Amino acid sequence: MSPLLLAIIFVIVGLVLLIWSADRFVFGASSVARTAGISPMIIGLTIVAMGSSAPEMLVSASAAWQGRLDTSVGNALGSNITNILLVIGAAALLKPIAVSSLTLKREYPLLVLCTLIGYYFISDDVLTRTEGMLLLVAFAGFICLLIYWGKHAGADDPLIAEINAELPEPVSMLKAMLWLLAGLLLLLASSQLLVHGAVTIARYAGLSDLVIGLTIIAIGTSLPELAASIIGIFKGEDDLALGNIIGSNIFNILAVLGLGAVIGPAALDPMAGSRDSYVMIGATLIMLLMSLRLGRIQRINRLEGLLLLCGFIGYQYLLFHTLSR
Question: Beta 126-127 vs 97-98: how paired, if at all?
């Protein structure tokens, strides 16, 4: 079997295991939290949201450990771009996304702030360990803020009912702990497999570490968000679907970039700061404007979803057109 074919198999198997193990990790962690008496709102805002970003976190850590910080950074930036342009775009094209939760409206300014901070740290074409530690401290602060919001959420917040409907049924503590441990171990193994396969493909195709993170890895690790958002929106859980994307993007900036910088600080591909960061900022601001229009129905409609999808296709064309020049 050729090394390229083997690498493709590694990527496919790695992605499948990554997505499945992330689901099992969330199931185990959520069950442990419910058994411990933690409120569903807090579980949904923290554990479930973190679980959806677990693939990006583990892939980032694995890539940085192997000395490929560009792949780690590409994963973070590319996942945020993919979450907005592809995931929200596809979901809104199928069914308009209503925005009504106060919790989500409070997260939007934080998303913009975190996006700008991420750009600032990347703009000098280097990520230091100090910057990584600052991002992780900010991540811990964000988790504390989510817990505070969860404790003080109003009874009429639609996100509460949506989270309750999606949380798994309680199981025994032993079973929950076993799934938690198995999910974590499989996340570690599958992330290593995915990075190894993706790097091998990149070498054969002449792709940079940054581009492989922006494309194959970013799109692959965003598949759980795509499936969850589309299913959630058709079940009428618009706030939960949109909240998962907002939370995931904040986690990607604070935790994914932070982990990569702490584990393997290094100089970056200049294109991350001069091209991809601007696309991420633009996509974030466009989603904000589409969601929070003053004096009008607050929703992302089908036309806007189509525009987001066209933006995603255009960005992919830009990446590969730049490579072919």
Answer: unpaired
CA 56, CA 127: separation in Å to the nearest integer? 18
Distance, in Å, from the CA atom of 89 to the CA atom of 102, rounded to the nearest integer, reads 22
Per-residue pLDDT averaged across 247-275, rounded?
Answer: 93
pLDDT at 101: 61
Q: Domains plus CATH for the chain? A: 3-324 (1.20.1420.30)
Q: Would you state the structure tokens that stand for residue 322, as one six-digit string?
A: 């730049």
Tell me the one-letter amino acid at 86.
L
Please say whether the dihedral angle defined by the alpha carbons of residues 13, 14, 15 and 19, taken in this order, is positive or negative: positive
Token pair 């989270």 is at which residue? 163
7-16, 113-122, 163-172, 316-325: least confidently modelled range: 163-172
- How many C-beta neighbours within 10 Å does residue 279 have? 22
Tokens of 191: 């992330």
Task: Please give the structure tokens belonging to residue 148.
Answer: 């505070």
pTM: 0.87
Residue 72 identity (one-letter amino acid) = S
Distances (CA, A) of 309 to 44, 92, 166, 210, 302: 28, 10, 27, 22, 10
Residue 140 and residue 134: Cα distance in Å, rounded? Answer: 10
